[in-house]
Specification:
Blueprint (H helix, E strand, L loop, with lengths): L1 E10 L2 E11 L4 E5 L6 H9 L6 E6 L2 E2 L5 H7 E4 L11 H6 L13 H13 L15 H14 L4 E5 L7 H16 L3 E5 L3 H7 L2 E6 L2 E6 L1 H4 L2 H8 L3 E5 L5 E5 L6
Parallel strand pairs: 3-8, 3-9, 6-7, 7-8
Antiparallel strand pairs: 1-2, 1-4, 4-5, 9-10, 11-12
Helix pairs in contact: 4-5
Length: about 260
């Protein structure tokens, strides 16, 4: 579904990401982790088609990403960016309805489009504020509306940069449960995230980046080791195994001198 070969992107003389190889199959939920400035957001922007790689190639569904038109890309993938600004007085439901735009072909929204938008708001528990202005929503409420918008887009590939930003623990879990169920339905999901424990809990595969380079990739159990994490974050870690079998990750404070 998604294949990256030796992908690189730079600004000026600095490589923001370099030599990235990645293959994401249907039914997989990948998470990208790493320190601030590791290149996580840039990599998502490259996969989304927003940026063009200056080295290597990206293929979506067997075709080079550059061969798709903007409308074709909008039908194939949805990208939920970390920073989202809407300054127009749109209702929350109208924001979600924007996700249907790639399917309209210049026509007006149908009753089915409105029904899909409402259903997607229900999925993320945002239906209580369908009529509220988007600009009046809290950060968490707006994040749920934005998630409903990309659900309404009905893509085959979901990309999300920090999908749990601004969300309380219950809605973090709900959002990642939804991402996992989307993957299990035959789609692919790739998300960048800082919370290593959420990545350990939900990811099928994890890609660790540092300074724009891929450090390692694999299952959470294999990549989240104390030695690996310390080499990436310059901080000691302890990992434990919970009763459910997942890896619990704890950063350790430096020993007082």
């Amino acid at each position: 579904m998604v294949e990256l070969e030796q992908v690189g992107y730079r600004t000026g003389q600095k490589w923001v990401v370099r030599d990235i190889n990645l293959k994401v199959e249907p039914r997989q939920f990948w998470m990208i982790v790493g320190p601030n400035g590791a290149g996580k957001s840039t990599l998502l922007r490259l996969i989304s088609g927003e940026l063009t790689p200056q080295m290597g190639r990206i293929r979506l569904f067997g075709r080079d990403i550059s061969s798709y038109s903007a409308q074709q890309m909008a039908r194939l993938r949805a990208y939920l960016q970390q920073k989202r600004e809407v300054n127009f007085p749109f209702r929350a439901l109208e924001i979600v309805l924007l996700g249907r735009y790639p399917h309209l072909n210049g026509s007006k929204e149908t009753a089915d489009d409105w029904a899909i938008a409402r259903k997607c708001m229900e999925q993320v528990e945002a239906d209580a504020f369908t009529e509220r202005l988007y600009t009046t929503l809290s950060g968490g409420e707006a994040s749920r509306v934005d998630l409903a918008r990309i659900l309404a887009q009905e893509p085959r590939l979901f990309l999300s940069d920090e999908p749990t930003n601004h969300l309380d623990p219950r809605h973090q879990v709900q959002t990642l449960d939804l991402c996992r169920s989307i993957a299990r339905s035959g789609k692919s999901v790739i998300a960048a995230i800082h919370d290593l424990n959420l990545a350990s809990m939900y990811a099928d595969k994890v890609l660790i980046l540092r300074d724009g380079n891929a450090v390692t990739a694999g299952s959470p159990e294999t990549v989240f080791t104390p030695e690996q994490l310390e080499s990436v974050y310059d901080l000691p870690f302890e990992t434990l195994h919970s009763s459910s079998g997942r890896t619990v990750i704890t950063p350790l404070a430096p020993t007082p001198q």
